[in-house]
Amino acid sequence: MKIEEVKSTTKSQRISAHSHVKGLGLDAEQRAIRNASGLVGQEQAREAAGIIVELIRRKKMAGRAVLLAGPPGTGKTALALAVAHELGSRVPFCPMVGSEVYSTEIKKTEVLMENFRRAIGLRIKEVKEVYEGELTEMTPTETENSYGGYGKTVSHVVIGLRTVKGAKQLKLDPSIYETLQKEKVEIGDVIYIEANSGAVKRQGRCDTYATEYDLETEEYVPLPKGDVHKKKEVVQDVTLHDLDVANARPQGGQDILSIMGSLIKPKKTEITDKLRREINKVVNKYIDQGVAELVPGVLFIDEVHMLDIECFTYLHRALESPLAPIVIFATNRGRCLIRGTEILSPHGMPLDLLDRIMIIRTLPYGMEEMIEILRIRAKVEHIDVADDSLQALAEIGNVSTLRYAVQLMTPANILARINGKEQIEKEEIDEVRDLFLDAKSSALLLKQEDAKYMK
């Protein structure tokens, strides 16, 4: 009998364009390290972004915004993402593109406001009565179907919970049994159940099972101390947009956190200003009582020149709101027309809005910086590239764009595997470059063979 080896059961994560960005890569004196946290070069822009982060931490950023301006492929999105990483993992980061506002279903200003509210977090702390412990028993009790027939239904479920101090058996509603199954809770898991709402939260596997040889990697947590029935401070993070949507279609419940039932709508509808004002009142009341804490996140609007004059006018009011996130714009345009007008303006933005914006300039990368970035991307994508191949890719990026050079790596890796090689060599780079044209080569070819194409 053939024995097959199981190599790994860990899920392979999709590698995005900015998976390697972990922060701004600044030292203790807020100076940019040449190659750190996934960022290379752009020292001046990174140091400026570091000052922005400090302004945000000191709560001095109200009413202002940031504009990242530079040619395509100079790391504007990476910088915005790095700012969000520096602020912390629980800080909301909401990216959007200027053209998103032109939706056929809702108004432009509504799209902007929705994204503003998505970028504002609310950290709610509540002291709740909970039953917490390691699950030792889960026995459903069945009864005859009250509607007749041969089927049986679950009338209740008996579960056992154990802590360091003692153990307790609970008789629960069948709906909680369904929740336990949905959460994939098993014997040996540490869970807590809210006494008033019946909400179930799986915290992880009890660390007494840590010596078992499980195929899947598991998060182990210690056996809870104290009694099974206790008062516990529960911290949950939501965004203001979550509150808007949930209150537009309320599901019932007593507290502010019970509104998270169904966030998926069959059709997109606008949320009224009146509803938002009411939610803001409740949020402000919770903040004053010390129950909740506002967490301003980052709203990143790429290709901001795609917005029109109406959107820019609306942004003025939104930026002055007391519940406003940190807004980071990005554009690769120089002087161009403001959309919807005949006014020529820097970056396609009105001058009165530019007055309240701090502009950070990003510069094109040099050859050495391109080689470092390509080396980082190769490591992230688990691709083995020879040094001369990295040099060739950097030269291609210098002539065309860095994005094009990065995109060539994966197809070159496939070609290398077909050719029986473990490492990408210059031969694969040259072949892939012939197979896939960059924008400049394509434009030149179109010009040369203009007569062969339809007008």
Automatic annotation (TrEMBL):
Cell compartment(s), UniProt: Nucleus
SUPFAM superfamilies for this protein: P-loop containing nucleoside triphosphate hydrolases (SSF52540)
Catalytic activity, EC: 3.6.4.12
Keyword field: ATP-binding, Helicase, Hydrolase, Nucleotide-binding, Nucleus, Transcription, Transcription regulation
Catalytic activity: ATP + H2O = ADP + phosphate + H(+)
Annotated Gene Ontology cellular component terms: nucleus
Domain AAA+ ATPase: 62-364
Region feature (Disordered): 1-21
Primary site of residence: nucleus
Keyword Hydrolase annotated: yes
One MF term in the entry's GO annotations: ATP binding
Origin: domain of life: Eukaryota
Listed transmembrane segments: none
UniProt cross-references to PANTHER family, sorted A to Z: RUVB-RELATED REPTIN AND PONTIN
Family indicated by similarity: Belongs to the RuvB family.
Protein name: RuvB-like helicase
